[in-house]
Amino acid sequence: MQRYFLNKPIIDTIKLKAGNDIFNHFGKVLRAKVGSKAEFVSDSLEIFVGEVVSVDSETININVINQYHSDVELPVQVTLVVSPLKNDRSDWFIQKATELGVNKIIFTSMKRTVVDWQKQQDKKLKRFKKIAQAAAEQAHRLIIPSIEFLTWQEMLLSPKHTGIVAWEESARDGETSMLIKAVSEVPSDEIFMVVFGPEGGLTETEVDKLQIHGFSLAGLGPRILRAETAPLYTMSAISVLRELR
Amino acid sequence: MQRYFLNKPIIDTIKLKAGNDIFNHFGKVLRAKVGSKAEFVSDSLEIFVGEVVSVDSETININVINQYHSDVELPVQVTLVVSPLKNDRSDWFIQKATELGVNKIIFTSMKRTVVDWQKQQDKKLKRFKKIAQAAAEQAHRLIIPSIEFLTWQEMLLSPKHTGIVAWEESARDGETSMLIKAVSEVPSDEIFMVVFGPEGGLTETEVDKLQIHGFSLAGLGPRILRAETAPLYTMSAISVLRELR
């Protein structure tokens, strides 16, 4: 069943007005008619199953026929910090990270970042938010991950309980235990922040800075993962270690 | 450093001839000149660092200046079975699965598969092999994963030590331990085979058939993962559970 984020309280009925994104998708793309059903997430993260009782060109009226709670969010709040990525790699990174349960994505320009979004930043952000929303609906999540563009310094000062840096050199040195240790020890509902370098990697200076700000170095296994693959590996690791036992 | 698969024994020197793929990439794309270096993997999976001693339009002559062994392959041989996927999703699935260490990818048409490659199968296979090779070079792996198109019946009879099916219904029933159990118990160097359904999911009949052929049902956590994301989650899980301790 299609899921929509209403971001409002829901009681017995839902009214969708023309012009609204959900009206457009449910009414025009899915051609909702009397009897059509969909799921709506309220601002209190409850799920309401709604059934269409009337449709016209201006309004879709929906009755709530069921309500339930579903625990599909990761037990820790994961913030992923990545460099802007080339071509459509940012798009699908956002889609996949959202499916895998990310809470917040921070794009930060790093020393070896080669992509410059300066002028298109607002357009990019709008696009990325749409991708995250569609992916969250598709994965049947309760929240849409937030996406931010921060400076390196703002990122360093972002709130976190535990921070790690995925660093290739750590992997090369055979560091294999930090990711598991950090993921296993972060308390539920706390923020787990993971920083990934751009294609060319983080500089030593950047890694030093991150360590001063409380980030630990972690290896992600012996193979070299691309900038957009390493965060997906990490998201999967967090799910395996926190949800599959 | 760029890595190439030579698939031949290497002793003291390497000669690349015009027309050869490696000649084209190293010579023309990377414009190798005297002193340029690259890594070459021999048929015995040893890595040789080579330095160019002469280049002309017909031949690149390379001297071996170093040799080493590197253990970057997953300790178990993972075979992923997936349905043909829409648009470019197959392409990037192959790239990511290769980075994450897959040994073999089997494409099989399933009951709810909507993509039909019948006529383009040879072209697709050629393209997929190139993607796998480039990703294996980039990830600094020692082998290029093999890619096969098999019928459902051929797939069921493929060799394996342990087989699991990622099934959404298992996840919905709260099954959370089979993946970890199966990954932890498969002996090193044995074949671990994982079957994933198409976008619409596997049918009950298909799941029954897989169980008769020795596959166990496994859930991949509470969120709904797309057909191409679930295998990447599984590959990451295998690495975390077998390589990160």
Automatic annotation (TrEMBL), chains A, B:
Coiled-coil annotated spans: none
Alphabetized UniProt keyword annotations: Cytoplasm, Methyltransferase, rRNA processing, S-adenosyl-L-methionine, Transferase
Enzyme class: transferase
Localization in the cell: Cytoplasm
Main location: cytoplasm
Family: Belongs to the RNA methyltransferase RsmE family.
Name of the protein in its database record: Ribosomal RNA small subunit methyltransferase E
